[in-house]
Amino acid sequence: MQDWIEGFQESIDYIEQNLAEELDIVNVAEKAALSPFYYQRIFGALCGMTVGEYIRARRMTLAAQELNRKDEKVIDVAIKYGYDSPDSFTKAFQKFHGITPSQAKESGAPLKSFAPLHIKITMEGGTMLDYRIVEKAPFTIVGVKRPFNSDTSYQEIPKFWNEWMAQGEKRPIMGTFGVCLDMNGKSFDYWIADLYMPWKDIPANCETRVIPGSAWAQFPCTLKTLQDTNTKIWSEWLPSLQGYSLAGEYDIEVYLPPEEGSDDMKVYIWIPLNKD
Asked: Can you state the angle between helices 2-17 and 51-69, rounded to 10 degrees?
């Protein structure tokens, strides 16, 4: 567990040391010995924000400090922290600090500061997290996919589901699975899918995809506890995991109808694993 935490902190230190350079999520994730896919998932759970949001907050903090205490031109600071034009820098700066970069140069200007993160796991009251590890053969899903950016996916994926569910009985598939696949930098595909039945025709506008066989950690939850369970997986369960390591570049949400007498849909989070 300690090595895992140290690796994650090393990645944050790497971000801090390179805020004035172009940061590639692949290089950042390598410092934590994680794939970009899992690094961004874990970062969000541990830190409560995306990697991109953290980098922007730190850059805006340093930019304001430089403008306030040095005789720096706004355009020079904008370029230093990755903005192509003064207008885009001013817009981002004003959104973060509530004042313009020019106003930040004035004595006594009110500025906001976002401190560097330091990852620390503390021992608190034990919490129970139910799960089971099962072996599954390869299986095929059929569904629709849409590309998303990790910085905005938490807001945009629910909209995708709402659009899909709004079709009602016209939906060609039910939506048993929500699948994150094919992370490339900050972008990935999210599928709304069902289990593919080979004897049935593939519905219009749908595709199929084979999910490799694997050991899977399966975590039961409900729609109400989905986010909380997801956070506990990455912040509590994963650091203490022994005998297994993360596999693949995907994870799956499973949505099943409520059992008789219950109003809550049964939900599972599936995480693929390799035996060490």
From this structure: 40
